[in-house]
UniProtKB/TrEMBL annotation:
InterPro entries: Aldolase_TIM (IPR013785), Class_II_FBP_aldolase (IPR050246), FBA_II (IPR000771). Its cofactor is Zn(2+). NCBIfam families: cbbA. PANTHER family: D-TAGATOSE-1,6-BISPHOSPHATE ALDOLASE (PTHR30304), D-TAGATOSE-1,6-BISPHOSPHATE ALDOLASE SUBUNIT GATY-RELATED (PTHR30304:SF0). This is Fructose-bisphosphate aldolase.
Length: 279
């Protein structure tokens, strides 16, 4: 059934686990994420980034509607989240399109500009009943997931208090779009952030984080784990393998189906990993 991101994240946090949130681009992504979560018997978040909307010819609704119907029919709770949003228009459309939450991304901005823009986004989101996540980059607008970026706990505490955000994406060593699972997280910094902040913490760029690091991050207080690239890697590898083995293939279902199956297995693995209760 369709549920809210807040319910899944707060539920996971209370249980000492995390909910995985996967970026969806095609209908195959939607089907794979739901199937993988169902196999694992765990809830999941379907998230659509502003970049994905651009790829969908600038239209949010077709993919959002498909995701909402898939969520309603799923055997596990599924929430819809709008990811890395910078446009007011998208923020405005989110609630009507079935999203219960948004991530406003002002991390490219200098601190005070990020704070002001996030605060405006928080007011707009809350006025529409949306739960809102934000991201704190480094001073100078480097972005929170550039290599070497780290979130400062003291600054983060002030940012959360002054902006009113419901969740915060923190920079602790993961980097967006990694294609190897080699990120090393700063667990000591995560502990300090956890102690300094009351809101749930979100890990972005989780495709590059090894399984044991993910487990440690969840134990350290990460309650939402964002994954994008890992699904695209799985899909692309499976399609490439299928087309190499079947150079005369014509029916799109043969290779897209292989891609979907590979994504579902990736989802099942990650959802199981982050949803494990502490022993
Ligand atoms: O917001 C989405 C995530 O941060 C995805 O990052 O593609 O590196 O897994 P990733
Ligand atoms: Zn991200």
């Amino acid at each position: 059934p369709l549920t809210t991101t807040a319910e899944l994240v707060l539920g996971a946090r209370a249980a000492g686990t995390a909910v995985a949130a996967f970026n969806i681009i095609t209908l195959e992504h939607v089907e794979a994420v739901v199937a993988g979560a169902e196999s694992a018997g765990a809830p999941v978040v379907l998230q659509v980034s502003e970049n994905a909307v651009a790829y969908r010819l600038g239209r949010l609704l077709p993919l959002a509607r498909a995701a909402a119907v898939a969520a309603e029919r799923a055997d596990v709770p599924v929430a819809l989240h709008l990811d890395h949003v910078q446009s007011d228009l998208l923020l405005h459309q989110a609630a009507d399109a079935g999203f219960s939450s948004v991530m406003y991304d002002g991390s490219r901005l200098p601190y005070l500009d990020n704070l002001a823009a996030t605060r405006t986004a928080v007011d707009r989101a809350h006025a529409r009943g949306l739960w809102i996540e934000a991201e704190l980059g480094e001073i100078g607008g480097k972005g929170a997931h550039a290599p070497g970026a780290r979130t400062d706990p003291v600054e983060a505490r002030a940012f959360v208090a002054d902006s009113g955000v419901d969740a915060l994406a923190v920079a602790i060593g993961s980097v967006h779009a990694m294609t190897t699972r080699t990120a090393a997280l700063d667990h000591q910094l995560l502990r300090r952030l956890r102690a300094a902040l009351d809101v749930p913490l979100v890990l972005h760029g989780s495709s590059g984080v090894p399984d044991d690091e993910l487990t440690a991050a969840v134990a350290g207080g990460i309650a939402k784990v964002n994954v994008g690239t890992a699904l695209n890697q799985a899909m692309t590898a499976a399609i490439r393998a299928h087309l190499t083995a079947h150079p005369d293939a014509v029916d799109t279902r043969t290779y897209l189906g292989a891609g979907r199956e590979a994504m579902a297995r990736t989802v099942e693995r990650i959802v199981t990993r982050v949803g494990l209760s502490p022993a």
